Amino acid sequence: MKYAISFIIGSIMSCVATGVAANNLAPDELIRTVSADVVEIVKADKDIQSGNARKAADLVDKKVAPHFDFLRMTRLALGRDWRQASPVQQKALAIEFQTLLVRTYSKALTEYKNQTVDVKPLVLKAEDTDVKVRSEIKQPGAKAIQLDYYLQKSDTGWKVYDIEVAGISLVTNYRESFATEVRNSGIDGLIKVLQTKNKSTETVAVKK
Amino acid sequence: MKTISVRFKSGAMLLLTVLVTAGCATSSGSEKDPLEGYNRAMFAFNDGLDKVILKPVAKGYDAVLPTPVRTGVTNFFGNIADLFIGVNNLLQGKVSTGAGDLGRVAVNTTVGLLGVFDVASSMGLEKHDEDFGQTFGRWGVGSGAYFVVPLFGPRTVRDTAGLVLDVAADPVGYIDHIPTRNTLLAVRVVNDRADLLPADKVIEEAALDKYSYVRDAYLQHRRSVIYDGNPPRKAEFE
Residue B151 needs a FRET pair 20 to 30 A away by CA distance; which of A19, A151, B119, B142 works? Predict the structure, then answer.
């Protein structure tokens, strides 16, 4: 078990976020600003450090979520099955998946506190619309954890549509279990599983 | 020399068990996870053992030791690990990276007081992560089926073979003074486990089905490390 889960390390400390108009920031700048922002808030907030899930979720919701494209994330996680879902089902899936991802982040925020984030500079060409920003989470006594963001350009700035922690995509890691669920009990079955999961976790939900 | 052959023998036994079990348990599971029936059972067994024994000990250990001491212990074992990380990099033909790893060992063992302080990192000698499984992967050996090894947890058939060599090569195993050796082995297991306590909670939060979440994460991660963090991105079927 021990080595097995080491890489899942959700050092999401460095999640993207920023309150101010980040719309025209370059992707790496966006990640850098937001990471610094979030790390600073967590460092100053004793409640979050001691595991206040509610506060952590609020932080993620306010600072991070606006820079994520949850619809695309959901589509990615569903893969081929996305097309067989009705628009209503698609919306329900996206809402539930967003809740799940935001909670996972919030959890990571409260669990990991002693890291520093180093966002690598990106050479951005004018015609680029889809980029990967690399960063590293440095922690005392261990190899730095690689944390990569995939972003797509949109009218409202660059949006993150996938994150890889140590090579593990937090989005596509669900693909297999989603597919199994859909195969066994259909799209509605998957929605139900997600709803149950979101309700079962004792932390308070993160709805706007 | 005798110890080496004994250890290879026990390693070979493990490998044999793996192959035999793998051969028997082909009835259930998907193409991606042909041994799923066996794997789930072993995963549950490992998980149960962890919950009852290892995790409580790791929690106590984590609560008692101050962070600088924890870091020192992690560094100490990390330094020991760097030796074969270097060897594996050399085996993969990454000469300068491997030389860097061996340089880390030289610096940290001396200036870093037997590895307790990771002086090498502050000198710009980066720490890496390699093992025999990755070396086999780099040489082009296919991963084989996903396989949950008793006590050790998620592997593939290839990585299980790598694990046998990792264990056989482990310098701690060659310490002649048995009480010292056993203490070090035990502390290392507990320390490693304690390092992972935060990850537990994140996984609990994230996973719909812990078994498949951990499996898919393991497979993705291994694919990534074999390419040293730069695997070709898989096609998205959107």
Answer: B142
What CATH number corresponds to the domain at position A174?
3.10.450.710
Question: Domain containing A39: what range?
Answer: 2-195
Give the nearest partner residue to A166 out of B127, B212, B224, using CB atoms: B224
Residue B159 DSSP class: H
Residues of chain A contacting residue B66, judged by C-beta atoms under 8 Å apart: none
Q: Where are the beta strands (DSSP E) in A57-129?
A: 116-119
- pLDDT-derived band at A16 (thresholds 50, 70, 90) equals very low
Of A171, A162, A165, nearest to A130 by C-alpha is A162
Cβ–Cβ gap B238/A75 under 8 Å = yes
Cross-strand pairs, A133: A149
* CA distance, residue A6 to nearest chain B CA (Å): 6
Write down the mean pLDDT value for chain B.
88
**Based on the structure, what is the number of domains in chain A?**
1
Query: In chain B, what residues touch A181 (CB-CB under 8 Å)?
Result: 208
> What is the residue extent of each domain of chain B?
2-64+131-226
In a domain, A201, yes or no: no
Residue A91, domain member (yes or no) = yes
Phi, psi (deg, nearest 5) at residue B28? -100, 175
Whole-prediction pTM value? 0.82
